[in-house]
TrEMBL record:
Coiled coil: none annotated. Gene3D superfamilies: 3.60.21.10. Keywords: Exonuclease, Hydrolase, Nuclease. GO terms for molecular function: exonuclease activity. This is DNA repair exonuclease. SUPFAM superfamilies: Metallo-dependent phosphatases. InterPro entries: DNA_Repair-Maintenance_Comp, Metallo-depent_PP-like. The keyword Hydrolase applies.
Length: 259
């Protein structure tokens, strides 16, 4: 908890599950050794009218670009853990602007710019102006504005490509085109040459993707392993969590001097 210019605020940065559980919970509490339980204990002991936190609440709508592993399962914190004594809770981690609680009042401000293609392409963006008077309700005023270049995904059939080229050329941001069906390498190359703001061309249902949907963009190790498990019918959260923990241990060891 810090105080600056008479304003008192509790600051809660993002911490990985392995480190948080180890620091907050005891070995004898094995049954309750979860990220959500550790967060509940921390939040229950924060006494401040204003809180700034970086974590994901259960039930939030992602805005594209978030690391999926840190949004679900053990990383999802129940909204009931938010401290009722806080007058306003400013949250980060989710890129879509949204209110997530009325008591206490809690919002994700969201990202000012689009960070990825996907679900959040049409999401409202901007800033939040928050009034916290000494008495009376907190008032939140969303300021709708967009910064940066927009990202857009277009799903087209091969026969529609030529007719939509003028539209693609005029688009002011960056494009991803998903073609439903076969697409020859020559046509793909022609699209990239004619559209310098085209970042990706993918196929859905064609031979290039093995018939299992769209071509996969470049994935992180955890996301790639998650997809590998799902393709083989092994959607076991425990396996993914253990893989993530081992990966973090390897990364920490690599950063340790003399390792």
């Amino acid at each position: 908890v810090v105080e600056v210019g008479g304003l008192r605020a509790a600051l809660l940065p993002f911490v990985s599950e392995r480190i948080l559980v180890k620091k907050v919970l005891q070995e004898a509490e094995e049954r309750h050794r979860t990220y959500a339980e550790a967060m509940r204990r921390i939040l229950a002991n924060l006494e401040s009218p204003l809180m700034l936190g970086h974590f994901a609440l259960e039930g939030v709508r992602p805005g594209a670009g978030e690391f999926v592993f840190h949004l679900t399962g053990s990383y999802a914190v129940p909204p009931s853990t938010l401290p009722l004594g806080a007058r306003y809770v400013a949250l980060g981690h989710i890129h879509r602007q949204q209110q997530v609680s009325e008591a206490p009042v809690a919002w994700y401000a969201g990202s000012l710019i689009q960070l990825d293609f996907g679900e959040g392409e049409e999401a409202e963006r901007g800033a939040l102006l928050v009034e916290v008077p000494e008495r009376g309700p907190v008032r939140v005023h969303p300021i709708r504005e967009r910064w940066g270049k927009p990202l857009k995904t277009l799903r087209l059939k091969p026969e529609e490509l030529d007719g939509r080229l003028p539209e693609l050329e005029r688009f002011p941001g960056y494009l991803r085109v998903v073609v439903e069906g076969r697409l020859s390498p020559a046509v793909k190359e022609r699209l990239f040459q004619g559209l310098p703001h085209l970042l990706a061309v993918e196929t859905a249902g064609g031979p290039e993707d093995g018939g299992n949907g769209t071509l996969a963009p470049e994935l992180g190790l955890v996301e790639a392993y998650d997809r590998y498990l799902k393709e083989r019918g092994r959607e076991e959260e425990g396996l993914l969590e253990r893989f993530n923990q081992v990966l973090k241990e390897v990364e920490l060891e690599a950063l340790t001097p003399g390792a």
